[in-house]
Write a structure and sequence with these properties.
With 139 residues, the chain is α+β, with helices and mostly antiparallel strands. It is built from three helices and six strands, in the order βββαββααβ. The strands form two sheets. Strands 1-2-3 form a three-stranded antiparallel β-sheet, with no helix packed on it. It is globular.
């Protein structure tokens, strides 16, 4: 895997993967950013959720469960001193489905978070406390 990040004298920075897909980044407003584009740490959290979401969708689909909507809400804490790494991250999965049971979602999330999701594994291996919970809505 290869990537490139470009800064051309103004924000946002632009990141490109090997296929040329673009991701935009900027620092927080207290470091010169506009506040209109996500910071690298925000994107890292979103990446962890997206990585896990791909797993959960795949597992639920293999169980032949219908997904009307799936959201992951993330709360985090960071160290006070530099480097300000994540110390705690909590994921809350909310699935809207006409036929999935809470046990289906919990099993899917557990497999993702304990076996498949590389980004959450990176968080855990850095010493971050990673927790998760699940909820089902009918729809």
């Amino acid at each position: 895997m290869k990537a490139t990040v470009v800064y051309d004298g103004k924000y946002p920075m632009r990141g490109y993967n090997e296929r040329g897909n673009e991701t935009r980044f900027e620092p927080s407003p207290d470091h010169g950013g506009s506040g209109n584009i996500a910071t690298p740490m925000e994107i890292f959290l979103q990446s962890a959720a997206a990585c896990s979401m791909v797993d959960v969708i795949s597992i639920l689909e293999k169980k032949r469960k219908r997904i009307a909507d799936l959201k992951i809400f993330i709360e985090s804490e960071r160290a006070n001193e530099h480097p300000k790494v994540f110390t705690k991250v909590k994921f809350r999965y909310e699935l809207t489905s006409p036929d999935a049971e809470l046990a289906d979602l919990e099993h899917s999330v557990q497999l993702s978070m304990e076996k498949y999701c590389s980004v959450s594994a990176t968080l855990k291996r850095s010493g971050c406390e990673v927790t998760y919970e699940s909820a089902i809505k009918r729809g």
